[in-house]
């Protein structure tokens, strides 16, 4: 984006932010401009062979991290009036086990599960997670993508969006727009 003073941190010691329900959380990407937190992004993956347990863990991690971040933000952990962008992206291994709906035997013996999960593959479940987290305002934007493993050199960088609403492109455009707006406000003295 050609912005001076924009810091994009990827290294462990520079991506730790305070939490509210826990002392701190290590994010995957942290963006800072002139000492002001502009963005934090969580990157996750979901691969086999145990998709069921791993998918549940990814859901719990994403929700817990998002709620912890938003509560810390509300309580002023990132400075008065701070409104950083919060992003989430998950890449799901593209294979038969992740793209076909799993059996839902005895999943909830007392109450019905939401209809959108009844025939959802693990890929679709991760897309639903991302859609709902954005809809609920837990994350500003999210992306659910799939890619085959192992990647061959000719396949490097190949992926497929798992939802038309939570795409990699949407995530990047919203992130860039947020950063541009924050930097512009700072430059104008607002």
Can you give a write-up of this model?
The chain has 190 residues and is α/β, with parallel strands linked by helices. It has one domain. 35% of the residues lie in helices and 23% in strands. It is built from five helices and eight strands. β5 (36-46), α1 and β6 form a beta-alpha-beta unit. α1 (51-74) packs parallel to α4 (122-135). The radius of gyration is 18 Å and the shape is globular. The model has no long low-confidence stretch (mean pLDDT 90).
Gap between N and C termini, in Å? 21 Å
pLDDT average, as an integer?
90
How many separate domains make up the residues?
Answer: 1
Please summarize the sheet with the most strands: 6 strands, mixed
Strand content: 15-25%
Order of helices and strands: EEEEEHEHHHEEH
How do the strands line up in the largest sheet?
Answer: 1-4-5-6-7-8
Total DSSP helices: 5
Structural class: alpha/beta
Radius of gyration: 18 Å
Shape: globular
Q: Give the low-confidence spans.
A: none
Kindly state the percentage of residues in helix: 25-40%
